[in-house]
Amino acid sequence: MPRYVKMATLDELPAGTSKEFEHDGRVYALFNVGGQISAIDGICPHQGGPLADGPVDGTCVTCPWHGWQFDVKTGQSALNGKIKQACYEVKVEGGEVLVAVV
């Protein structure tokens, strides 16, 4: 059974925003796309860029360092079908954003 950790509140992550969080040495990128919260591994596999700092178009985030793109809901690379970021289950309870951690 996954263990959920509070990473934000809905007030800290309004629609159209993203934010980076660290827990136990792992970086998580949280995205609020149209009221739906998603969480993926926050470090771009190319050269370690901060995905939460990249622009989001629809559900696609672009790494601000070198332009690699990932779907924030599935983690799938838009540029290479063999590359996928880890995705983490998210639930919202009482205005708190909880992420299943590994």
Unreliable residue stretches: none
CATH architecture identity: 3-layer Sandwich
Helix content: under 10%
The biggest sheet, with number of strands, parallel, antiparallel or mixed sense and barrel status, is: 4 strands, antiparallel
* Straight-line N-to-C gap: 11 Å
- Distinct helical segment count: 0
By CATH, the topology is Rieske Iron-sulfur Protein
The CATH superfamily appears as Rieske [2Fe-2S] iron-sulphur domain
Beta strands, count: 10
* Strand fraction: over 45%
Please tell me the overall pLDDT.
96
Could you state the order of secondary-structure elements as H and E? EEEEEEEEEE
Strand order of the largest sheet: 2-3-4-8
Q: What sort of overall outline do the alpha carbons produce when their principal axes are compared? A: globular
**Structural class of the helix and strand makeup?**
mainly beta
Q: How many independent structural domains?
A: 1
Rg over CA atoms, rounded to whole Å, is 13 Å
